[in-house]
Amino acid sequence: MKRVLTPKLRRIGLRLGFERDWYLYIVAAVIGVFMGLAAVGFILPLRQTEHFAKMLQGSESLWILVLLGPAAGGLITGILIKLLRHEGVGPGVTSVIYAVQRKKGKLSWRIGLRKWLASTATIASGGSAGAEGPIVTIGAVVGSNIAKVLGTGSQHTGTLLGCGAAAGLASVFNAPIAGIFFVMEILLRDFSLKTFTPIVIAAVVSSATTQGILGDAALFGVGEGFFRDGLAFSVPQIPTYLVLGLACGLLGALFVRSLDSTERFFSSLPVPIYVRPFLGALLLGALGFAVFWLMSSDTVPKFYGNGYPMIDTIINPSTYFTNGEDNVLKDAAPLLLGLAGLALIKLVATSITVGSGGAGGLFAPSLFIGAATGGCIGFIVHYFGWFPNTSPAYFALVGMAAMVAATTHAPLTAILIVYEVTQSYDVILPLMFAAVVSTVVARFVCTDSVYTFKLSRLGVRLGALSDLTVLRRLTPEDVLIEKATIVRQTDSAQTLVDLLEETGTSDFVVIDEHEKYCGMVTAADLRAALVYREAIPLLQVSELQRSDLPIVSNEETLDLVLDKFSRSDVQSLALVKMQGEISGLITRANLMKRYQTALNQDVN
Which of 457, 491, 517 is the last residue of a domain? Predict the structure, then answer.
């Protein structure tokens, strides 16, 4: 059925002009509407569970929910992992990045379905994770599979994948600008206009759709009088925000290392992969119950779930003052210990949840940890009277951006996320400063982000230059392939000389007695042999061939092919099918010509 449907869709697409880029704008708008509706369906169950937890406040049986609730979510997640197996390599965003870098943007629908169900179960039951990672993954899967159904080329698959991811994040956070730059800066690493325009359309349409249904404004409201005293960012304030950036940078690096160590620990356990989320949930439940019992609390632990209600509390000025005039601070020790403890417990809880295989995002925990860290530093600054016109809540806002920047190594996205979810421009300058400082510190301490530490273990290197994304979108099928001049191992070396004179070819592909590839004789090899020309008739091809050269397959992206050329220092490599049959030669010159052409197309 699929084989029949795809050609028909392609023919319809050709009639509609689908060979031109304008069709991406229509598809992007459709993806935006779909993801807006999907986000509503994803968000509402999570909000209902928050409402349910509030209803149980003060209940005598609440301790049972605190202790066993996460375990129920871990059990459901494990069952879903068992039933919906897929080729993903880690948490949702990590799998999306891997698909962009190594699989031409192809994602299985199983990834999206499992992420939706498992993350709902994880977060709703108290797992310490956010909703943004799952919805980004779901959107990426939607975009990838729409591209597959429409039969678009590999260059447009990544763009539509980005449309879905940006639309998802824009809907959850009601932050279309941040959703756009998250995709451009973290997922695609591509800021070309052809990629940017459809993603903007998808993000804006999706955010408008969700906002139209739910009627939400900013995710974290700061109140009408939040900046009533003004916040004139000045040179004397730079050291305090420098300290905040340093603290968040170090804490962000610790978060990445903690996630990596926890994931390694659970991977080393002699249990099936689908059992690990349940074990992690049991540990989380034990941690939650310990805090619940020690604090003699009558509410669900604040670090359970996405933590949005607690973030709202931390960025509220009244949290730090005893009166409405905001000039008398509360007792320092309980407040500082509470905020610092929340930051560290949230870090540990998220590491356990995600490291054990629980489904969920890392943006919300980063915002939580950053807000608590910023609140601590802001309280100390205000306590000593250094900047009386400020509030610890200001520093909490800045800490949110600094921590997201430190954990993702994406300061632009972090700045825009916090700006859009609070809709407060007054704090943009310290946001920018602290986010950049925290990113530099985090990268110095730990070269990987929360999304790339597992990719590094798989040998996936993310280039620093966005131009390399061009090569990652192309395959050998997009390059002019030269006809291979084939010789046998048993042929005389004189055959190579004769072919060189007849055809001008200087690189030869060698096959064995089974007609399969076994090596190459390069121009350098032949020149070295010609130094002793009188010995040529006495030599066989097998004595000149190189068997250590890598081969190229049609499925590889051109950045991998370029890497093979760099390591081998040759001008041609054999393009070989899975069965060992020779398809032709791919040359370094043709690869670079195609790269330059693609760059020119992106510029234009």
Answer: 457
Beta bridge mates, 575: 552, 584
pTM of the full structure: 0.77
Q: Are residues 579 and 491 in the same domain?
A: yes
SS (H, E, C) 296-355: CCCCCCCCCCCCHHHHHHHCCHHHCECCCCCCCECCHHHHHHHHHHHHHHHHHHHHHHHH
Please give the share of the chain, as a percent, with pLDDT higher than 90: 14
In terms of residue numbers, what domain contains 407?
235-457
Q: Which two tokens stand for residue 205?
A: 């349409």
Judged by DSSP in three states, 95 sits in: helix
The answer to whether 46 and 120 have CB atoms below 8 angstroms apart is yes
575-587 per-position pLDDT tens digit: 888 777 788 888 8
Are both 387 and 489 inside the same structural domain? no
Give tens-digit pLDDT for 502-553.
887 888 888 888 888 888 888 888 888 777 777 777 788 888 888 888 888 8
Positive or negative, the Cα torsion across 382, 387, 389, 392? negative
The two three-digit tokens of residue 176, written as one number = 């279309």
Give pLDDT, residue 603: 43
Question: Which amino acid, residue 146?
Answer: I
The CATH number of whichever domain residue 323 belongs to comes to: 1.10.3080.10
Would 462 be classed as within a structural domain? Answer: no
Handedness of CA 549, 555, 560, 561 (dihedral sign): positive
